[in-house]
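Supplementary Note 3. Input sequence used for the single-chain structure prediction.
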Amino acid sequence: MKKVIINADDLFLNDRINEGIGELIDAGIVTSVSVIVNMNYSPEKLKEFYKEHPNASYGLHVNLTEGYPVSDISEVRSLVNRRGRFYNLKNFIFRVHLMKPGEIIKEIDGQIELFKKSEVPLLHIDSHSHVFWLSSEMRRIQMEIAIKYGIPTRYPEVTDVNNRSILFKLLRLYLKLHRNNMARRVKMPDALIDLFGRGDTADFVKRNTENIKDGISELLTHPGYACCGGFMEREMQLKLLKSDWFRELLMKNGLKLCNFSELRGKR
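The predicted structure, written as discrete structure tokens, is reproduced below.
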């Protein structure tokens, strides 16, 4: 049987993204949400959002590349620049080997505790900009956190049939070793599909959807309403996900919707 978790990343990045994700949960399309807790978030806001949109599972979207840490800056000094902000993704990639693992774990623990203050069940953990994939130490931390808290994590290898670049193929080969190791120790879906891939067109979505195999696959999405002169690609995703065409595509390919609670009994 083909089951899919349609996950929307970046809840609480901004209010317009929240609005779009809420609409997709209510429409029965998005079944899982990944929450950023170090930006426009408070436990009370998440509690209220969950109350209004209960038909999804909620998880933490670990953020180490935007905004400020939730930890005291003096305790995570290797993760931040002189202004106390996280390094952006480009600088994170170049500096990750200089970051102290204990400080990374401390910040992730802090983000988990801030999530838990909302009293919303924490059912999975993943990372903003896929930082868990950026070094062997980060991949070890991903597995350690998932084991420590007994929660599923994101499958560490992304599929996008539209991306035929050599670099992407090399990345998949590189991550495959980590995937096999993780699969023996933590719960996670059987696949991660970048639903929109390198474009936001119906043709890209159709190809990736038709490639889904038996098991539980997480479909990665970033929907939301555009704002502040940006995020137009998110609004295109939102409109496509809300369309009758997308519902028919799911039905045509025999896909059953589920969320991360489905993984509780998975071995």
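The chain has a mean pLDDT of 91. The two ends are 16 Å apart (CA to CA).
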